[in-house]
# Entry
Amino acid sequence: MKWVTHKDVTADGIASCWLIERFLDRTAEIFFVDEPRVLETAASKDAVPFDLPRHPELRFTQHNGLSTFESLVREFNLEDPGLQHLARIVHAAEFVEADHAPEAPGFRAVTEGFRALSSEDAPRLQWGYSVCDALYVWCRQRTP
# Structure
């Protein structure tokens, strides 16, 4: 399946791409385009648009107080306790609510560091996927 989102992904975008590729669609093809072109690109490539906070009407984006990651977890009924815990971390990192998940400031700092290291999304995702893999394992070990 094809997916499309905006360039210059943040913590929520990195985690959402990871979730899509690791749990929802192992053969996903994700496109990154300038934000104003996401919906047009989705239509032309028959792709699913996601992580567009300025478009809360979309199914897979930030809306109703949820991060994109949380929206995906909810829509696909992913009840894995490790993913549920990771969803709290991603939410708190994206919305700067450290009191909801003490790990969130670290996750946010790392993903912002990726943005400082590279202006390209591909290396950010590569690094981010490693962090998400490690956080997911950590979350699974801490949840019954």
